Amino acid sequence: AGSKHSHPLTILPNSISCEHPQTKREPQKDYIILNNPLLILLFLTGNIIGSGIFISPKGVLDHAGSVGFSLIVWVLGGGICALGSLCYAELGVTIPKSGGDYSYVTEIFGGLVGFLLLWSAVLIMYPTTLAVIALTFSNYVLQPAFPDCLPPYIATRLLSTTCVLFLTWVNCSSVRWGTRIQDIFTVGKLLALVLIIIVGMMQIAKGHYDALEPQTAFEFIKDPSVGQIALAFLQASFAYSGWNFLNYVTEEVVEPRKNLPRAIYISIPLVTLVYTLTNIAYFSSMSPQELLESNAVAVTFGEKLLGVFSWVMPISVALSTFGGINGYLFTSSRLCFSGAREGHLPYLLAMIHLKSCTPIPALLVCCTATILILCIGDTHNLINYVSFINYLSYGVTIAGLLYYRWKKPKLVRPIKVNLLVPCSYLVFWAVLLGFSLYSEPVVCGMGLVIMLTGVPIYFIGVQWKNKPHWISSAVERVTYLGQKLCYVVFPQDDPSEIQPLTEKSEL
């Protein structure tokens, strides 16, 4: 790490442009132009609806303690996401920089807080999310072969690792291949959800709704504590993750003042409705005990109701999770890439392949971290792990909105939400994180400790400018070797993007 304007030794051409004979596109120019309200709505909705709805229902029910209360958690979870999205809409048009949370926090609180958020995202949030989705992929693929028991531990880990390695290779080879996979496999999750909801509603129409009747729905399997309820919200939040993804492309949204709130008002209630209906459909054919005992909820649902066509469900969910892994690999590598360009991560992560223009070093770091986390724990513990850090980052970012209001009260804000919105979110955020930490001190506390380890790393790697010569030489040798192995160089600078986030600017 260090200043982005003092590049280390480069053995290959120092920059490349779109005139390279092997490529017709400039690196970092794969912008998404969101110039249609319907396109903006589909973009946000498509990024929220993912593999989480096939993973989280079991965890939500387990911690909520009853069918009725679990459905309430799903509805309230969508409402909390709506509050957070409105706050992010204000930040997105007030600080129109790419990078989402990382950019906002760095601009408002400075380099240290921004680095800690980046550090936790690179080491915890993205690799853990990738690990959870990869494990879900392997569970759904292997479950039909092991109908009466859990798939073997080694088998799920090997298949998950193979999937992550394959998609890392795809994204290293071509940006176009990665985006095409994302487009194609999005159909899988939509097919699975539509099929589940339609079949579930047909079951309810036939009178199969015993678990949903009020006197049955609120029969608690176990008495939930406040801490367990907080963990239920953390499980649900994993399925809703992606509600802030539109902030990563705010600069590509036409008329954001009008289209950002409109997309939020429509997409999040729509996703909340879909998720609630999906859970209702599950309970139309499965008892709470059956759902908790299932390792792949959608597969169990398909086996009970689809008969000879039950194979459709695991294939659809596998397609969905496969596309989810690809999408998170793409975005996590770009976050590493952005952090390195700002001098907050090693220079090597800011380099791209000379011909294919893909950030190979950043992709390899994300892949390695994911494979390591795959061996740590089971799916639901990993969800608590990543959701705690996610909520911690959201809360810090929204607290930044209040601080920025106080710091720059006269700044023009095209979107300005009522103060009750961020305050309500922060109250819920404080209660949720406090009780989650109390209920799972090891899982949540470990994430907090890993985040705080970034403090000495920041001062040693970023703030310490006059390092001994042997340290600089070692970094240069590693960078030199990485360039030779990956055949990567620094991309050509875009004059509109060279201002560091830590510099003060007039907005």
Automatic annotation (TrEMBL):
- Per the UniProt entry, what is one GO biological process? D-alanine transmembrane transport
- Per UniProt, what is one Pfam family of this protein? AA_permease_2
Q: Where is this region: Disordered?
A: 1-22
Transmembrane annotation, as ranges: 32-55, 67-88, 109-134, 154-172, 184-205, 225-243, 264-285, 305-331, 352-376, 382-405, 417-439, 445-464
Give compartment(s): Cell membrane
What is the predominant subcellular site recorded for this chain? membrane
MF term (GO), any: L-amino acid transmembrane transporter activity
User: How does the UniProt record describe the way this protein sits in the membrane?
Assistant: Multi-pass membrane protein
What is one term from the GO cellular component aspect held by the record? plasma membrane
Q: Which UniProt keyword terms apply here? A: Amino-acid transport, Cell membrane, Disulfide bond, Membrane, Transmembrane, Transmembrane helix, Transport
Report the protein name in the record: Asc-type amino acid transporter 1-like
- Species, as recorded: Sinocyclocheilus anshuiensis
What gene, per UniProt, encodes this protein?
slc7a10a
